[in-house]
Amino acid sequence: MKALRKQLDKIKPQFQKGGKFEKLHSTFDAFETFLFVPDKTTSLGSHIRDSIDMKRTMSIVVIAMIPTLLFGIWNAGNQHYLSIGEAAAFWDKVLFGLWKVLPIVVVSYVTGLGIEFAFAQIRHHEVNEGFLVSGMLIPLVLPPDIPLWMVAVATAFAVIIGKEVFGGTGMNILNPALTARAFLFFAYPAQMSGDKVWIAEKADAYSGATPLAEATAGIESGVVNFSHSFMDMFLGTIPGSIGETSTLAILIGAAILVFTGVGSLRIMLSVVIGGIFMGGVLNLAGANAYMNVPFYYHLVMGGFAFGAVYMATDPVTAAQTNTGKLIYGFFIGLMAVLIRVLNPAYPEGMMLAILLMNVFAPLIDHYVVEANIKRRLKRLKPAKA
Amino acid sequence: MPNTIKLSKGLNINLKGTAEKNVREVSPRYFAIKPTDFIGVFPRLLVKEGDTVKAGTPVFIDKYRDNISFTSPVSGTITEIKRGDKRLLLEVRIEADGTDTKIDFGSASPASLSREQIIEKLLQSGLWAMIRQRPYGTIANPEHNPKSIFVSAFDTAPLAPDFDFIVNGQGEAFQAGIDVLAKLTSGKVHLNVGAKTSAKEFLNCRNAEITTFKGPHPAGNVGIQIHHISPINKGEVVWFAGVQEVITIGKLFLTGTYDSSLMVALAGSEVERPAYFKTRRCAEIAPIIKNNIKGENPRYISGNVLTGTQIRHDSFTNFYDSVVSVIPEGNYHEFLGWALPGFGKFSFSRTFFSWLTPKKEYVIDTNMHGGERAYVMTGQYERVLPMDIYPMQLVKAILTEDIDLMENLGIYEVEPEDLALCEFIDTSKTEIQSIVRKGLETMRKEMS
Predict the structure, then answer these.
(1) Res A84 pLDDT > 90
(2) What is the DSSP letter of B173?
(3) Cβ neighbours of B434 in A, within 8 Å
(4) Engineered SS bond to B366: which of A41, A117, A317, B6, CB 3.0-4.6 Å?
(5) CA A274 to CA A271: how far, in whole Å?
């Protein structure tokens, strides 16, 4: 390690002001701080600082996504072999899944990080770690059969239009990963919806419909025929986006996020409560077959759980006050189920619900903070009287 | 039965090197009064190098409030007047002559004096500077009538001194000091004690309302206590003083002189034998750290590790501080430090495996442990600030210099020290205490 450090110290001057590679300063800095925590000490204020930093925080989120990624890899293979009607060994499924999923992950990271580095360079900023998370989230919300060029285009769109134009990580209004998904959903609907895309290299004869599609179909036919049980949906052995199918894997991730204090339990729970509430109301109404699907199915179908744990909790785009988080989460759950059931054109309501509430989060915070201000002013009045 | 207020938010940082409860007496030779210890004071010097002074001789006054003077803690000679950039007065250094001659301001029972006479005596002796006000943390204005006066009898900061131990044997002076404060306000004197406070000097104190605060740091901060007992609204002023300041004020009325003796705790992982020292206010730290430091590369801090000021080994304690903390410097590169399991790394979050050992005494150095970033995480500051205040929104209001919003979000109720833990746990590594100070200074200038 000392030799590496020495080497870094030797080449460092070339990347600093006046050096040969001055223009690559941010890139050098990113690699240097990746390898070594900087030697900067406190100068103002508190003399000691918590060991946590943005790199640690973001890597915890990435770790929390690993269960869904691993399951997604296996399930991509699993669904493929099911559709072609072949029995396959565990490792065959994993290998097939890796072959499908890994390129998507690589394309997402390479495109996104490339743009991040370029922007950091232009702005003379340090490279922010935010994309470490977005770069993993994007593949997890895409179908396994997505063309790679689309991944690249969507990632570029999300990073540039969703984030950098607002000023980079911490300044964006919409969740970048969902921006990528929404972009694909509206720009290339054929590759992002319907029955064909959710299983990689699916045999044509095999149905491959997701539970959400089956539920939507129930509105017309008058009866919802799920080809999977509730337990299948919970465990995740169903077609769907790479990371979203297994509620169990997502719960493991949620436990990591909540235990380490990185993810907000407040948001996760309020999303679930919002979903249960709306599902319950629709159950009571019961006007069509979809409305009669028991409310708890909504929690395990589609991207509801994934959105609640990994997307809604993005601290930058969520509400920032504790009370605000409860309201924000509740409406995400509520809107997601509402859109699913009442608007069959958008079977996956979660994505739109989160993006919508991202937009409303600052307004929610505004009213929560106003309430605090009013409390403070109220205190003044009796004191004066 | 005393009132109890329970606070659950906050964080106790368990550092290695708490001062042992034994006292060593030292007699420092060099002293320095630093105008920079006093917020908003513009000094006008009254002495020159070579002048002789007694304990209680004014050394400089505040240019804009010339009845507030700052007096020598010892008798001796002015050896050096140290200036910095733009001739800013940094230190007035005094060499003690060992005779300890004191000016006699006349002893008197506080009960027999009027408010004006008490104020006059405090101003003359220079001890008025020991009473400070909220908002802004400046020295109190003798023309104000504060709505109440607060004294916190316990400190919850890491490596903090134990005031139960310090007040031992000083009960009479402490009570006299409280009696003085009681004369200064038409409201109450609030003496706030901790859950572990057992000193009868505090618990049996007369002329003050006693409230018990239970909870982690910053429950011992006077700002937190004010917020829960008598919150500061726009236009209101609350005064506060520390335990040792109250004792010194009490002694002035008991003996008629400025007795600058002070108990200072020397603490921290780099101290060989952490202990209490009987020294003087504004004294050099050399005699207390002599042969008592073990680290190669220590940082000396006057005050606690969260809010104190970095000083040199041949420098002096600040006027209001009763602890000197010594911790290791952290100017090293750590290979993949952010990715290691981190068994010995203290963190408020549970992102490091140090959550397995919550009772461990930690050695924390001065490394930033990461680079500065935009604000990303939310809801963290709220967990260490037991106040009905939105810290992140307040910090952002200060950064955008939105005066109305700062006022509305409660800037009058905070001092940088109250948000020190927010700064400590901040993932984005921003300088929150400096930001809060800047906001308070903006408001002070705006309001005057």
Answers:
(1) no
(2) H
(3) 44-45
(4) A41
(5) 5
**Of the candidates B137, B139, B145, B143, the residue with the CA atom closest to the CA atom of residue B43:** B139
Q: What is the pTM of this model?
A: 0.91
Identify the closest residue of chain A to B410 by CA–CA distance. Answer: A376
Confidence class of residue A383 from pLDDT cuts 50, 70 and 90?
Answer: low
ipTM of the complex, rounded to two decimals = 0.90
What's the pLDDT score for residue B352?
85
Q: What is the three-class DSSP state of A41? A: strand
B333: buried, middle or exposed (CB in 10 Å: 19+, 13-18, 0-12)?
Answer: buried
Shortest distance, CA B67 to any CA of chain A (angstroms): 31
Q: Which two tokens stand for residue A113?
A: 């990080």
Restricting to A residues 2-61, those with a Cβ less than 8 Å away from any Cβ of B are 4-5, 33-57, 59-60
> How many whole angstroms separate alpha carbon B291 and alpha carbon B189?
42
Please name which of B287, B244, B285 lies closest in space to residue B262, comparing C-alpha atoms. Answer: B244
* Total count of domains within chain A: 1
Structure tokens at A282: 């629709």
**Per-position DSSP letters for B68-101, written without gaps between them:** -EEE-SSSEEEEEEEE-GGG-EEEEEEEE-SS--
**Nearest one of B36, B35, B56 to B44, comparing CA atoms:** B35
**Does the bond joining A13 to the residue before it have cis omega, within 30 degrees of 0?**
no
Range of the domain at A304: 56-370
Contact A8/B382 with Cβ under 8 angstroms? no
Q: Which of A47, A259, A268, A323 to mutate: most B Cβ within 10 Å? A: A47
